[in-house]
Amino acid sequence: MTHPWMRTTLPIAILIALAGCSTSTPSSSTSGIIDLTPPKEPTQLGSSSTTAAKTTDVTAQASDSGKVQAFMMRGMVTLGHESNSIQPCGSTQQYWLTTAISDRSALEEITPDGYQAMYAEMIGFLDPAPEEGFAANYDGRFTVKQINMISAEMSGGCKQQPHTTRAFGNEPGWAAEIKDKQVTLIQMGKERQSQAITSTSSISGKQQYTGKDFSLTLTKAQCNDTMSDALFGWQSTLEWQGKQFKGCATIGATDVTLNWIGEYQSSAQAAQNTGLTTTLVLNPDHSATTTYAYTNGDNSLVETGFWQQANQNTVQVMMTRHQGRRLNGERLFTLNGNTLITTEEVVNGHAYSLGSNGLRLEKQ
User: Fold this and answer.
1) So what's the pLDDT on residue 66?
2) CA dist., res. 166 & res. 269, Å (int)
3) Which portions of the sequence form the region Disordered (predicted)?
4) Averaged confidence pLDDT in the chain
5) What single-letter DSSP state applies at residue 298?
6) 9-29 mean pLDDT
7) Rounded to an integer, what distance in angstroms lies between the CA atom of residue 75 and that of residue 87?
8) What is the enclosing helix (H) or strand (E) of 109?
9) Which of 9, 188, 208, 288 is deepest in the core (most CB within 10 A)?
10) Contact 171, 131 (CB under 8 A)
11) What is the pLDDT of residues 146-159, one digit of tens each?
């Protein structure tokens, strides 16, 4: 992601040299919508026991810059000595996976032999892949802030639509589903019962839903399903008409940041002024491609990388490859109507102004 005037005045060989001399890497962080409160010890489905909180040690903490928000990624996860990766559903992209040390023993217990892929839903954020090690050849690095669920038995999980928030347990079997501002209790051999949600709250690793005659609490903590090889990131307690149910839970698996996906392009007037047309494509798997097409017929330049939401009005676009060579280029775009606007980019640790008008890309 080099400065437009550099593309029109410098040969590609120099651009590639610039891509190899990075002095610092723009970092990402979570906005705080997913917290890192210490998790409880794993609880077996159907068990009513809980234990004291345990300190969390995360191998790749977010930076203090607060640039991006964590988001939900659904995909197939492979865990092993030389491969810790997630491939988003419906994608060929592969991101190196960084998980919390406190989660690894539980993950090892459900991981099948032979690098068999498992369906997973994980909340986290993306960073560029490191320059060395097993992770270097991946499309980026996904740091997990929260496991929603991972299962060795759901090989077809990506074929299903993202589910809504739900709690469930065994002995006896029960489930509570949240949909359309209602909670529906499902029990084996009984009719479904529904109640309206009158209030919700989400603080310090806990989500709570209440109604006239029920209360459902989800607590961030490991939870194991004794009936399957699955690990969940939430424990649940349901109080329903005087009865109590305990089990595991998963929050809704929809990536709520996908409103950014699409193709964005510079105007014909900009092409006349700069001699090139810039096209940015943001894909559902969070991959991104920037193409620079020259009006004089020269070969187009292509950069690839990833994107993620910074806030409801800002998106971070990181270009990690320029013509296939390593690059660290960051642009923070602000949305104005249907147009993405940025006035600065950071390339290999160096900030460049894009002029008073900046770069403006209109959604196609």
Assistant:
1) 61
2) 51
3) 28-61
4) 83
5) P
6) 33
7) 5
8) helix 101-110
9) 288
10) no
11) 999 999 888 899 99
Measure CA 248 to chain center: 22
Tell me the one-letter amino acid at 362. Answer: E
Q: Is 255 helix (H, G, I), strand (E, B) or coil?
A: coil
CA–CA dist 143, 124 (Å, integer): 5
- Report the alpha-carbon distance of residue 85 to residue 78 in Å, rounded: 5
Q: What is the pLDDT of residue 83?
A: 84
pLDDT at 33 over 80: no
Q: Domain map of the chain by residue range?
A: 66-159, 166-250, 257-363
Tokens of 245: 């149910």
The whole-number pLDDT of residue 318 equals 97
Closest C-alpha among 19, 312, 355, 273 to residue 345: 355
Model pLDDT, residue 67: 86
Element (H, E) at 4: helix 4-9
| Cα separation of the two ends of the chain | 21
Does domain 257-363 fall into CATH 3.30.1490.20?
no
pLDDT in tens, 49-95: 333 223 222 222 333 346 899 999 999 999 988 889 999 999 999 99
Q: Which residues contact 123 (CB under 8 A, 6 or more apart)?
A: 34, 70, 71, 72, 73, 144, 145, 146, 147, 148
Cβ neighbours of residue 272 closer than 8 Å, sequence gap 6 or more: 295
